[in-house]
Every structure is written in structure tokens, then in C-alpha cells.
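Hi U.,

Before I forget, here's the chain from the pilot set. I'm dumping it here mostly so it's searchable later in email.
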Amino acid sequence: MNSLNSHQNNNAPDPTFDNDGKVLYNIPGTTTFGSSILQTDGKILSVTRAGERLVLVRHLDTGVVDSLFGDQGIKYIDLVPGQFILQASITLQPDGKAVIAGSFGNSGEPVHKAYLIRVLPEGEFDVTFGTNGRLIFEQQSGLEQLHGLAIQDDRKIVLVSAITYGFDIRTVFIRRLCDNGEPDINFGTYGVVKPGNIYIGPTLTLALGRLLFAGSLNNKLMFTRYLENGEIDTHFGDAGVAIIPVEGSSAAGITDIAQQSDGKIVASGVAYFESEGRPLVIRIHPDGKPDNAFYGGKPNMEGYDRAALHFAVAIQSDNKVVAAGSSFGDSERSNFTLMRYLENGNVDSTFGNDGRIMTDLGGIDMARRIHIQNDGKLLVTGDVIAHLNGSHVGMVRYLNT
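Structure:
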């Protein structure tokens, strides 16, 4: 399913983006599993990892590397000497600054720590944040891993992580920081909330300072909402938690969430049936109840001719939903995937090939994020590993008319 029918080229890769709509960018020595953001000027800023260093690379909106950024488009950031960087994720603030978060630590060592870095639009450290632009969360034991990151309109930073102690003891943390990196003492206990033994990752900032988190609980889809002060919002779902089972699945979880202009929440995710993953989307009301006007209130799990999942979701101005992710398999079968859904939750058959697009970038291709540009084009970014030429930052921009 790699090609589009000839009458459906309205969603073909954009030929004005690096000639064929696709960008593969490799930096020797890097390991991908980073992320990318679309800056306010249309440039694309990506972060990835290279051992003990973070690597920033910026592309112009044409897909060409921005030679005016850093050293010919690349900027290296040293974090902690002797410590391997395990995760790197980037999020854009309303003022154009970028927050980079993740974790670091060496294999076999008893402590892995979370970090935050804030950089200015040109990649320089923002010295008004933390200690010279950096913040490290210190703990004496346990392996900390980043799960979610979001920026409120007031520039407060919300960070979700979990620390694992031993084999089965796990503590989830929701932290909220002020704009300067100090804990927000008006949130939870000195800026920290511990929601219990649940998995949450996707984070959405809402009106009135409320926060919506999603993930899984007891192998079911789960949403939970918190008030501005860090207390659970008992007016949402059942005492603050909404759980949605996926009939017949052995496990299911939410990977991303987005909010429509009417307040409804659309989520992407995956459900497993005998270890085979199926991508899903679902829509809920602001109070956490499933929206029966969207696919009958159930997850839409129509997918591909192979196992797949959605990593990211976004909402067009016409309330159509686009979801990006990956098909499962080796380098010949694992591709960027993209689907579009109508406002009623059905697959949009006018998009791509019967509502679906699959793009082969030559490796194990994983679309992690989807960005809707001001002109409506769809920019999908992610990782390409097991490629003949190494690991790459991968991008595809699709027409969307």
C-alpha cells in the first residue's frame, strides 16, 4: 500500500519539500528516537541523541538544512559528562522557545535521572531557566523515564515521568514548573503530584489551568483530569478517571490526545489482539464520556493490511482527524502511516488510498508526530532506523487539498 491511486494525488508527498516530499537526515554517531517541532516561522527543529550529547538540527520549510543554524544546521549540546542520554523530546512554547526533556544514565547503574533544557529559537541556552538553561531532577535511586511533556499558555511546564525501583515498584510523577524552572508551589505538594500506579503519558493543557492525561489502566484506555491546584477533578469521568475497555483486546492504550474547538477530546492509540496491534482513534466529551456521534462511541480500529499503531493525532480546521504512526515489521514492511477520519469517526475514503497512506522511507520507519501547517499541508516527522545508511531523522510532507 505504498502508492496512491492516480485520482487521489491531492494527498501525495509535496514535491516542493526536498523535491520528492521526503527528507532523511543522518548525523554520524547519532541514535534516533528523538522528536521534531514546527517553529512559528515554518522551520523544523529536531532533537536526537549522540551518546552523551544532544543534537539539534534545523530544516527550512523547503526541507533543506538551515545552514544559518548552529554549525551548518547542527548544534551539539553537552549534558552530563560520562552519562548516556536515553531519551530526548522537544516541545515548543508559545513565545517560540523550545523545551527539551528526557532522561540519562548508563546501563547497569542504579540511577537514571530526568532532565529539562530550554533553548532560544536559534538554539542557544535560555539562561533565565533553571541553572544556565538546564534542570536535572535529582534522586538517590531508581530509573526515571519521561512519559509526557506539555506547556501551558502561561508558559508553565508540565512533565510526566515514572521512576522504577527494582522489578515491579513504580512511582508516577506529575511535575509543574514555573517559567523559570522553579517548582510551582501551588500545584500538588511543592509542585509534584503522585497519581498512583497507572500509566499516563499524553498530556493536554485545558482552560482554567486544568490538565488532561491519558494512557492505560488495567489494559484499558484511560483518561484522567486534574484541577489547576493538582487535585483530581471529580467532575470528570468516574471520580476523575474515565476508563474505556476495547472489546476483545488483550491490552490497549492512548498514545496522543488533541482537543477540538468545541472542547471534545480526540485520542489515538493501539489495541492488541493476540499480540497484533491495531491503530485506533476515539473521541470523548469534555466530561469523559464516549462521544456516540463518533463511530458509535467506540474506538475506530480500521487499519491496514498489517499490524500497526497510531503514535500521533491532530485535528484539521474542518474537524477531520488525522493520525500518524507506523506499521509493524522489518525494513520492508515498517513504514510511515497516515489516516484521516471524518467528523463522525468513519475513515475518510477521499484521503489517500481509501483513507490511508503508507510511505516507505527505506528502514524501520516510525512516524512520531504530525503537524498541520498554516497552509493545511501535513508534516509527519519521526525516526528511521535499520536503514542501509544508518539511523535518520525522517520527515514527509503531504499535500492536503
